[in-house]
Every structure is written in structure tokens, then in C-alpha cells.
């Protein structure tokens, strides 16, 4: 009996060393009734928690037997003490700098919803904060595979497919363009590239065919931009004129929109020089934009041949006016332009003027007439040599200076001839003026003109005679325009309307012929 009491006392000391919750657990479950020591030991052994397993919930182990009020009262304060810290703990507020920036729109919650379906349920704010922390701002990949929609996958697939098709087609096209020449015309066009199967010849034929394909868009529309000269209207020289900032100036304002100004003296310049030169308008503007302006600018068609953007050449990123396509002798061609890049193929044939910006007092265009008239009068075989002598100089000023020197020398020779006796005959006049027999046309008098011998005696030079004749022709032309100009324009309008009507009738006849043939073909079997 004593041994049992001693064992019970040792077990009681051991139970006192256990955790407080484990020590109180038997008190909550079993009523505080006296029992033999052996029964107490059995109950303690059966209720002793295993050190390898965590203690079970006290509510699951509670028995339906009534509890001791004293035990309940002693356990209640401890439960309240344990519950107070849990109730007093509140969630910490999220720092302001971790909140999402709603000024750029509401952040997407797609990834948060996907994580919730996978078993995770973080808030959208926490997801946004974690993404910004992981990727330094923006959408972070994390360890999860990025979501790709079906349309995005289809787009990527089609992109790869089209790139593969384009690459394959390019390789096949290059290989096909390197084939042998198909006929003698192609072979004659490329005599330095013979047929053969070597890689070098294959590549040379590919380059040649590719250059021809590209040149279709870069070269002028025709090999000959102008038809062959007509002997009845042939002029000894050809004068090409630019349009923008030389004959006209276009500007746009908010008050008036687009407006086009005609350069002062343009009508006189064109009409006067039309008796000496074959006038060609050579502009970089497309036909659809420039043709209405040209028709309004020159209603009487003194400009014989208008050439538009389609007649220019595209080279090294710039538009070039290549005079070699004009079908004219370049030694008799002069071009007036405002940009040196436009005439870089034949700079020796060009006179580059300053762009006209709408100045109403401008006289630069009219000041060029004496120089151009002098070239026609003297019948130079190559105008490029004359233009070369004026290179880098203001042509009207330099020509006036040279003419003054020539006139002074002419008057000096005339005085010497008068001292030796009066010259007679056209040969003497030609020798005095330094003219060859082929250039004596200006010394042949026309009806109503002063005799060249009398003009010579009065101190007039050959260019003076040519200028007087040119002025008389211009005045006669202006008189015809004033008297018959409206009639000419009306006749031209009627001719255009007649041509349009004939074209419409021809087109309708073709349509009716097609439908009529079908109808006859359908009725023939019935007959």
C-alpha cells in the first residue's frame, strides 16, 4: 500500500512539471472526485499526451459528463487571456508606396483569379505588390508560365508561316531570275553576260533582270520623250522651262488656302521666245496636279511639249531631269531650272536661277531674253560653250557688260570704215559684223523693215536688227490674240467636246456590239 502511494506521489510531481495546458487537460475532462490510486493512475496513463504527436483539440476529447464548476471557473480566465491578444491583433495597413497606381487604369486581376483557382487566394493588392517587387515594376513572370490567349497563339503561328512563305518565295524568285536568256533580244541587250550555269553568271543575270524591273519605276516612261522634229515647225534650238518657283509660285495661308501666283513677264517671255525656240515645259509635278495649272497658264499653247513627273528619272533618292531622253541634239538644248540637283546629269546645258518667291517687282525672267535672243541670232553650233563662258556669273549683267564692250568696238570700226569710204554690199556688212554667209539671214530685209545698209550706217548692230524684227513679230502676235483669241479658245473647246463625244459613242458601240452578238447567238438556234 505504501509503495503505491509513493509511486502516485512521484507521478504527481512529474505531472506538475508538464506544460500547463497538459496539466489542466485532465481537470477539464474528468470530474474532480476521489478515486483509488490505481484508478487515478490508469486514467492519467490513458489521458497522457504522446510526445511524438501534438495534443488534440480539447473540445474533441471532452466527454458529455457534467464538468466541475470550480474547474470551469479556473479555466475561464485563462481562455479569456488567450483570446484577448488574438482579438486585439489587427491587420497591418499596406504601405502607400506599395499600393497600385490607379491613375493608369485599374490593374488586371486575371492572374489573381488564376491563382485562386489553383488553390491560392492572395488579394489583388498583394499580387500587384509581389509583381512589382519581383520584376521591378510592370508584369513579372515569376515561376508561372505566362498566359497566352488563343488569338495570340494563332497570330504568332500565322506570322511565322507567312515569314517562312516569304523567305521561300524570295529564294525561289532569285533562283528563277538567274536562268538563261530566253531569246536573242535579251541576249543582245546584255552582251557582256552570256548564258551559262556557273554561280557568277547566274548572279549576274539575276542582277540584270532585277535592275530592269526596278528601272521600270525609276526611269522615264518613254525612251523618246519628244517626237521627231517636224520640218514645218522646226526650231533650231530647244528651251526647257521649269514650273515651280520659276514660272509660278504656290503658297498656302489660313485665310485663303492654296494660291498660285504667275511670275511677272511670264506671258511676254513665252510668247516672245516662241518664235526662236521650241519651248518645252519640264516639271517634277505629276500630270494630275500640273496639267490644270499649265492649261490655265498657257491657254494658247505656246509651250509645245509639256513634260511632267512621269518623264523624270529617280536616281539616288532625287528626281533628275535627264535631257538625253528628249530626242534632241544636246548641243542645241538649254534648260532653265531653280535646283541644281534637277539638272545634275547635264549641268553644261543648264542655267540655274534663284527661286522666285512671289515678288511682284521681279524682272529676272525678262532680263534673260536678250541673251537667249542673241544665241539664236548668232546661230551658235554648240550652246554649251556659250553657257560655259557665263558659268558662275549673273548672265543678264554679264551679257549687258559684254554687249557694251562689243558695241564700243563696233562703233570704233564703223568710224574707221567711214574714214576710208562708204562700204557697199551685204558682204562688206557681214565682214564688218563678223558673220559667216550661213549667218546672214538677219541681214536680208523683210517687207516693212529698214534696209540693213541704212541700219548699219546708223550704228545698229546685228542684235539690234534681230530685236526690232522680234518686237514686230511679237506685236503682230499680240494683235492676233486680241482679235481672235476668244475664237481660238472656243474652237478648241468645241474640238475637245467633239472628241469626247466620239469616244463615248465608240465605247457605247463596243458595249452594244458585245450584247448584240450574244443576243444573235442565242436566237440562232431558235430559228
From TrEMBL:
Keyword terms: Coiled coil, Membrane, Mitochondrion, Mitochondrion inner membrane, Protein transport, Transit peptide, Translocation, Transmembrane, Transmembrane helix, Transport
Keyword Transmembrane in annotation: yes
GO cellular component, as recorded: TIM23 mitochondrial import inner membrane translocase complex
Pfam families (alphabetical): NIF
Compartment annotation: Mitochondrion inner membrane
Membrane topology label: Single-pass membrane protein
Gene Ontology annotations of biological process type: protein transport
Coiled coil: 467-502
Entry similarity comment: Belongs to the TIM50 family.
PANTHER family in UniProt: DULLARD PROTEIN PHOSPHATASE
Complexes and interactors: Component of the TIM23 complex, at least composed of TIM23, TIM17, TIM50 and TIM21. Interacts with preproteins in transit.
Name of the molecule in the record: Mitochondrial import inner membrane translocase subunit TIM50
Organism from which the protein derives: Trichoderma asperellum (strain ATCC 204424 / CBS 433.97 / NBRC 101777)
Taxonomic classification: Eukaryota, Fungi, Dikarya, Ascomycota, Pezizomycotina
